[in-house]
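Sat 14:20. Reprocessing the chain from the morning session after the first attempt stalled halfway. Input below, unchanged.
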Amino acid sequence: MTAFVVFNPNAAGGRTGRDWQQIEEALERVFPLMSFFVTTGPFQAAHMVRDALRDGHMEIIAVGGDGTINEALNGFFERGAPLAPDATFSFVHSGHDSALCRRFGIAPGWQAGVAHLARARIHKTTLGRLACISGSGEPVTRYFLGGASLGLSASTARALGRARIAKLLGPDFALRLHRLLVRLRWRPTRVRLMAAGHDEIAGFASVSLTPNAGQFDIKVLDGRNRADEARALRTARLTAAPTVDTKGTVDVETDGESAGILPASFEICPSALNLRV
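Finished this time. Tokens:
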């Protein structure tokens, strides 16, 4: 089989780049004919996937962390429509455990990812789609596989995306540090959550959404971030909007990567992607 591989050498604190020769050799045992592109900055993965699809590539593989995989996934779409409906997407997560790995039952690390890919099959997979705004007020549309959230968890994702010094000490340290710093600065805020048969203004810490069987599994954590008192919702569409009581902007993330701020709408896209998993 042939494949176009998008590879981020900086993923997992640079370990992905150091292991690339081994990763390439392992992938070649599954896909004997490969061409690949090495990303050097943000947003390149989506652009290169679009170019590859326009050039006729039908098998796209993203190798890296959550950000690389999500960017490559978004390269399958342009102006809300699929570029190549028959093309197939797959990924090798080279970092630590993530929502993507948990959703599809894949152990973390590139060795497990390649081993899983070798026996994977193609499935029509449901995606989530986010529409929100950037910090400067521009419209943003992002597709996601693993999950999305708004509030405290999304603020942590934004802080991690900007981290530099902390990442030198490892991704685990960076995650613990920025999760702590964000929580220290966090103040409970109030937003309006709207879905079919549901409309409320509530104080919360975070709202997480996971695509599952044609709907979102939604978990709402209250202003004190108490997991044992989380509320559950299930719907195919959710709108979240700031209110007059909202303090500052509210962050939104998809697949662990900062995407923008409220207001935002999330909707299910059934059978939107051919996923080898």
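The longest strand covers residues 257-276.
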